[in-house]
Amino acid sequence: MSRLTDLLRQVRGTDAQLGADLEKEISALTKRRSFGLVFERHQPEAVELPGQPIRRGAKVRVLQPRGETAKGDSRLWRVDSIETDFAGQQIAQLIELVKDAPEHTTAPIEDLVVVAEFDDKIYPGLVETGRVERGGDKPFHTVINAENFHALEMLTYTHRGKVDAIYIDPPYNTGARDWKYNNDYVEGDDDYRHSKWLAFMERRLLVARELLNPDDSVLIVTIDEKEYLRLGMLLEQTFPEASIQMISSVINPSGVARKNQFYRADEYLYFVFLGTSTVVPHGGNMLTPAEAYEGKRIDIWRRLLRSGTNSRRQDGVKQFYPFWIDEESKRIHSIGDYLPLGEDPKAVTPPLPGLVPCWPIRSDNGEGCWQISSETARTGLAEGTVKLGSYTASKGRWSVSYLRNAEKQRLARGELEVVGSDQNGALILKQSESIARTLNPVTVWNQVSHNAGAGGSNIIRALLPDRKFPFPKSLFAVEDALRFFVKEKPDAVVLDFFSGSGTTAHAIMRLNKQDDGRRQCISVTNNEVSAEEQGKLRKQSLRPGDTEWERWGICDYITKPRIRAAITGKTPDGEPIKGEYKFTDEFPMAEGFEENAAFFTLTYEAPLSVRHHRAFERIAPMLWLRAGATGRLIDDLGDRGWDISAVYAVLENIDDAESFFDAMCGAEAVHTVFVVADDDAAFQMVCRELRSDLHVVRLYESYLQNFEINQGRGF
Ligand SMILES: C[S@@+](CC[C@H](N)C(=O)[O-])C[C@H]1O[C@@H](n2cnc3c(N)ncnc32)[C@H](O)[C@@H]1O
Q1: Looking at residue 714, what is its pLDDT?
Q2: How many domains does the chain have?
Q3: End residue of a domain, out of 399, 431, 463
Q4: d(CA 72, CA 61)
Q5: What is the distance in A from the centroid of ligand 1 to the CA of 62?
Q6: Range of the structural domain that residue 485 is part of
C-alpha cells in the first residue's frame, strides 16, 4: 500500500484530477476484503410478523394452508388492494415483489402474514404482557418477546452506550434444525449455512456494539466446535478496537461422541473486552475444583536459590551470603553478610564453632545467588517467612525457602491464614475460605457447577416441572462468567438477546442477592416453537399467530414463566419450588428473589399513528426503559397532559405546563424528562424552566429519527 500511496502522490503532483479519481477507485477496491473472513451477506434478512394487520401496501407471504406440514411459499408479495367478496371474506390482490415480470394473484387476508425485511423501515412499540414485583424500588428486569434484530434496534434508542455486559448463547449452527434464517431452518446440507450464520450474527453484533459502553464493557459469546473459528474472526472484524480471549469450558466431562475424533467435553466462551474492561477475580482459578484447596494446608514456599538466567554469583553480587545452620537442631542460627565478588567463601569463619554454612550453590555446583538480600532474609527469618528447607545428602547441602512478596500480600489481605509455626519459627499456612474469591482465573474452566445437565436442565425442571427447553446453560456458568465483570458494578445493565430460557436474568438475580445489588437484565428472545412441536401444531391445523400456537412459543411458555418462578419461588402451578441452589451460597429455591420483572412484546407501529401521538401507550415502555426501568411506568398522560413517576417525567401539554413545573420542584429523584414538542422554541422554553441537571429528551422528532428501524445501515 505504501508504494501505491507514493505513486498516487506523484500522480497528484502532475494531474490533480487523475490523482483524485485513482484514489477513489483504490479506496473502493481496498474496502473489498480480500483476506480475513469473506462471506455472502445474504441481504436482506426477513422476518414474519404474525398478528400484524394486513393493510394495502403491506409486504406479505402467503401461508401454507392449515393442516399442511410441507414448506410454504417463500415468495414475497405487495398487497395492492383489499376487497370483500360476496361471502364477506376479505380478499387481497397481490403483486409479486420482483422486478421482472411479477406475477399477480389473490389470497384471503387471513392466509397472509406481514413480512419485514431488514432494510424496511419499522417503528417499534412495546406492549406489556405481565409483571412480577417483589423488589421494592429496584429497577425491573425486562423480558422482550421479539425478533432480536428489531429489539436491538429499539434498544439503540433506550440504551445506546449504556450496557455494561452482553451475554449471548446464539444458535450454534449444528445443522440440526437449531435455528432459522429467513423463516427456514438452516439444515446441515445447506451450502450457504456458514455464510448465512455469519450474516445473521454480524447484523446483530453490529447493532449490539452500539449498545455497549465503549469505555468499559464486555461482550460474552458462547459457541461450540461448529462455528468457533468463524465466530472468532467475525468478532475481530466487528470489534477491531477490542481485545478478545477465548475460554474453553468443560460442560460435560464424559464428552459427547464424535466419530473418529476426540469426544467433545467442552464449549467455548469468547470474551470481547471494550475500553478498560477488566476481569475481577472472584472464584478459584476456574480450573482447579474449589474443594481441592479450600481450607487445606498448602505449600506456597519457594526456593530461595535463584535459577535460570541471572542466577550466577556475579548476577547478584549482594545476594551471595551464607545461612549458618545448626545441623543438630536443624535450625538457621543466623545469616551472614554478603561476600564481595572474588572473595573465597571457604575462607569465611562461622560465627560459632560447629555451625555449617549454606551458600547459594547451583545444581551445576557453580556459585549462584539468593533471590533476596541478606537484610531482607534476616527480616524474613525473624517474621517466619524464611525457613530451612531440605538436606540433600548426595550433595551434602541444605536448601532455604521463603515466601514471595505476592504471598506476603495475600497473607496481609487475609487470603492466607497462619495456623502456627514450626520449630524454626517459620509460618504454617492454610488457604482461608476467601482464597477461592481471589485466585486469578485462567483460560480453561472445569467446574462441576458448569455442567449443562445439572446446572441447566435440572434447574428448569425444578422451576417449570413438565416443561422442556433444549440446552439451557448452567445457571452457575452464566453467573460465574458475568461475575468477573459486574461484581463491582452493583448497578450494571446486562443484556442477553438470545435469552432462551432466561438463564442470564436468573444469574443476575442471584448476583444481586449476593451483594444487595440493583443490576438489571434485559432478556430478548423470540416466541419460536420448537421444530418438533411445530409439526404437531400444524397437523392440528394451527399456524403461527394463532393463540393456541403462540402459547407454546419459547418466550411465553418458558422464558417469562421461568423468570416469574425464580422470583416468586413458585412453579406455574403455584407449588413451592423443590430443591436448593447449591453454589457459592445455599438456599431453598422456594425463597425466590426480592426482584422485579416486567414482560413485553415488541410491536410494529404504523408511522402515521406514531406521527399523530396516537401510539403513546406503545412508546411509553421505551421511555421508561430509557429512564432506567425503575418505578411506575407512565403510560397515560391523562387530561392534564403530563405525569411524574419515580425517576422520570413526561410532558405533552406544553401550553399548560405551569402545574408541571410546580410539581417538578418537589421531584428530586427525577433525572429524565421527556418533552413532546414539535416547536424548537417551545422545547427550549421548557428546558429553561427545568433544573439544569436534568436530562431532557425531546419527542417525537427524536422518536421518528431514533426508532425508525433501519437507518440506512444497509442490511
Ligand atoms: C441457544 S438458545 C439460548 C439458551 C439460553 N442461553 C438458556 O440458557 O436458556 C438461543 C435462543 O435464541 C432464540 N433466537 C434465535 N434466533 C432468534 C432471533 N432472531 N430473535 C430472537 N430470538 C432468537 C431461540 O429461540 C433460542 O431460544
Answers
A1: 45
A2: 5
A3: 431
A4: 9
A5: 26
A6: 139-288+443-593
Residue 712 lies inside a defined structural domain of this protein: no
In contact, 210 and 713? CB cutoff 8 Å: no
The whole-number pLDDT of residue 437 equals: 52
pLDDT at 532: 78
Among protein residues, the one with the nearest Cα to ligand 1's atom 24 is 500
Q: Is residue 40 part of a domain?
A: no
Contact 649, 676 (CB under 8 A): no
174 and 221 assigned to the same domain: yes
Contacts of 400 (CB under 8 A, 6+ apart): 303, 304, 305, 323, 332, 358, 370, 386, 387, 388, 389
**Cβ neighbours of residue 204 under 8 Å, at least 6 residues apart?**
148, 149, 152, 497
Which of 17-26, 105-114, 333-342, 360-369 is predicted with the least confidence, judged by mean pLDDT? 17-26
Q: Which of 383, 411, 431 is the last residue of a domain?
A: 431
* Nearest CA residue ID for atom 26, ligand 1: 500
The CA distances from residue 219 to 36, 211, 279, in Å, are 21, 11, 12
Q: Say whether both 461 and 426 belong to one domain.
A: no
Q: Measured from the CA of 469, which atom of ligand 1 is nearest?
A: 9
Q: What percent of the chain has pLDDT over 70?
A: 92
**CA distance linking residue 620 with residue 650, whole number of Å:** 9
Strand 266-275 versus strand 59-62 pairing type:
unpaired
* pLDDT surpasses 60 at 674: yes
Q: Which residue has the higher pLDDT, 392 or 623?
A: 623
Q: How many CB atoms lie within 10 A of CB 310?
A: 11
Maximum CA extent, the chain = 123
| 122 C-alpha to ligand 1 centroid (Å) | 22
Whichever domain contains 71, its CATH number is 2.30.30
Q: From start to end of 200-288, where are the E strands?
A: 216-223, 243-250, 266-275
Please identify, by atom number, the ligand 1 atom nearest to the C-alpha of residue 148: 20
| 448 and 400 belong to one structural domain | no
| Ligand 1 pocket list (CB less than 6 A) | 147-148, 169, 171, 179, 469, 471-473, 498, 500-501, 503, 525-526, 528, 554
φ and ψ of 146, to 5 deg? -165, 160
Ligand 1 center to residue 147 CA distance, Å?
A: 10
Strand locations in 461-607, DSSP E? 493-496, 520-525, 580-582, 586-588, 596-605
Q: What is the secondary structure of 592-611 as a DSSP string?
A: --S-EEEEEEEEEE-HHHHH
Which atom of ligand 1 is found nearest the CA of 180? 16
Are residues 659 and 700 located together in one domain of the fold?
yes
| CATH code, 201 | 3.40.50.150
- How far does residue 70's CA lie from ligand 1's centre (Å)? 24
Residue 132 lies in a domain: no
Residue 422 contacts by C-beta under 8 Å, 6 or more apart in sequence?
Answer: 387, 428
* Number of other residues whose CB lies within 10 A of the CB of residue 449: 18
Question: Are 582 and 689 in a shared domain?
Answer: no
Residue 552 shares a structural domain with residue 621: no
**Mean pLDDT computed over every residue of the chain:** 89
CA–centroid distance, 527 to ligand 1, in Å, is 9
When mean pLDDT is compared across 160-164, 228-232, 548-552, 603-607, the lowest value belongs to 603-607
What is the sign, positive or negative, of the torsion defined by CA atoms of 30, 35, 40, 43?
Answer: negative
385: in domain:
yes
pLDDT at 715: 43
Residue 502 CA: nearest ligand 1 atom is: 9
Residues 423 and 471 in one domain: no
Ligand 1 centroid, distance to 257 Cα (angstroms): 25
554 and 662 together in one domain: no
Q: Which residue has the higher pLDDT, 422 or 108?
A: 108
Give me ligand 1 centre to Cα 560, in Å.
13
Rounded Cα distance, 24 and 391, in Å: 76
pLDDT tens digits, one per residue of 156-199: 989 999 999 999 999 998 877 777 777 677 777 777 888 889 99
Cell (9 digits) for 696: 431532557
